[in-house]
Amino acid sequence: MASEDVKSSETAVSRIVNLAEEAKIASEGVKAPAGIAWLTITKSLLAGGVAGGVSRTAVAPLERLKILLQVQNPHSIKYNGTVQGLKYIWRTEGFRGLFKGNGTNCARIVPNSAVKFYSYEEASKGILWLYRRQTGNEDAELTPVLRLGAGACAGIIAMSATYPMDLVRGRLTVQSGSSPSQYRGIAHALATVLREEGPRALYKGWLPSVIGVVPYVGLNFAVYESLKDWLVKSRPFGLVEDTELGVATKLACGAAAGTVGQTVAYPLDVIRRRMQMVGWKDASAVVTGDGKSQARLEYTGMVDAFRKTVRHEGFRALYKGLVPNSVKVVPSIAIAFVTYEVVKDVLKVEMRISD
């Protein structure tokens, strides 16, 4: 299944990239000088990377707690909520424990965010060109549904490109001081997974990740851009006086986008985390932290993971960690969008998300 997932991901990504490139070439007609084009692309990728790193570091403690809540053993509960969970980590692992796995997280999220934002811009251009060609209206604008499609394309490309880092980040985040075996870092974790579980293991949980990223990233971009567009055009309650929204308003749009996206996609994120732990011989000890040998649930696929999770722990298990995740997502997505646009302004990149 993992092999089929990888092959299908490569095919989908290739088609999306080719379509976007063809549409871009056709819509632009005349290409910009190579040097200028590469400089613009580099600046756009840099802005996306900075946005991802800043936003994720700001909420790193909540990110770690969310993953611990998602994968903890239901018979050995250590984390009962956001405040209690953060206090427990502080008490048992200290300040550094709150940011455990953040280096790996940033190593994954920086390129992921860079690719995601840039892919969204390119996918938006391609989809808008196709839409105008189909309708015959050269002045047509992106609709919320089209923005959802562009965001979905961006999410699939970014997720597929950086998925092995996501798997390693999850395992580094979950392991604790009582784990019998320790990953010493990103490179060691990748090498260990390849040696002990094989290359297919790097894409465990890829399918629910992609299925989850379609509504999550798609809704993030669609809600954010549509809200901004609505505010500029309707100017409700006198919130907007010109065509340029303030930072506070953009943060509010980003917060709304993050809330909608993560609520819809959260169960798939839980299943992805659990599938990523399958095959890790020390996963049960890491999750329970009690030093005892415990049986691990094995999943044959995404549907099986859903079924076993609901049967053994109930439907509510699909939303474990939702509260700290909600507290994390709201500022994280908001900060990412605003940071991206601010950095692009500083770097003087003409191309913006909304263009």
UniProtKB/TrEMBL annotation:
Q: Which cell locations does it reside in?
A: Mitochondrion inner membrane
Q: Which PROSITE patterns match?
A: SOLCAR (PS50920)
Q: Which UniProt keywords apply?
A: Membrane, Mitochondrion, Mitochondrion inner membrane, Repeat, Transmembrane, Transmembrane helix, Transport
Stated family: Belongs to the mitochondrial carrier (TC 2.A.29) family.
Pfam families from the UniProt entry: Mito_carr (PF00153)
Where is the signal peptide, in residue numbers? none
Q: Does the keyword Transmembrane helix apply?
A: yes
The protein depicted here goes by the name Mitochondrial carrier protein
Q: Which InterPro entries does the record match to this protein? A: MCP (IPR002067), MCP_dom_sf (IPR023395), MCP_transmembrane (IPR018108)
Q: What is its main location?
A: mitochondrion
- Record's GO cellular component terms: mitochondrial inner membrane
How this chain sits in the membrane, per its record, is: Multi-pass membrane protein
Gene3D superfamilies membership: Mitochondrial carrier domain
- The superkingdom listed in its UniProt entry is Eukaryota
Q: Name one GO biological process term.
A: transmembrane transport
Solcar repeats at which positions?
A: 39-126, 142-230, 245-346
- Native species: Daucus carota subsp. sativus (Carrot)
